[in-house]
Input
Amino acid sequence: MATPFMLSLDNIELQFATNHLGHFLLTNLLLETMKKTVQECNREGRIVILSSEAHRFAYREGIRFDKINDESGYSSYFAYGQSKLANILHANELARRLKEEGVQITVNSLHPGSIITNILRYHGYVNALANMVGKYFLKNVQQGAATQCYVALHPQVKGICGEYFMDSNKANPTSLAKDSELAKKLWEFSLSLT
Output
């Protein structure tokens, strides 16, 4: 989380490449198999895309399409927020496309909560503080997995699609996260990079 500026092996800013493009590509590679399985089994399929409340702290324009690799304007926290915003936009656009196709697959995104992990390893003092006092107010790994499990498996989520969840409940993401034109633009941009 909030890594120093780095490029992936494909020369794409690392947080965007890892947190968004990797998920985008994997989902697209598995999608036809999932559609076939859903049809053969006649059961709803579910795609769950992990995001974060950090999507609220993306760059002002949301996704910096023309500056994705711009080191001079890079902010590690805004870049992380951008990648997490991209996760929600991806989920919403995929949900829209699958609904349009009439496919029985739901797609939702979620925030797992603030969890005790080493995600802040690039921020020494913050990481040390989080590890020291985090056990009193952060979720453990099992608690952090609860919302993913709920959205992926719980009967109450059957048929729910294109939503954002937090603490096993629907939540309200930012207006940028709900921007369907931004989601479509991100989809095309992501296709061009994968």
Q: What stands out?
A: The mean pLDDT is 89.
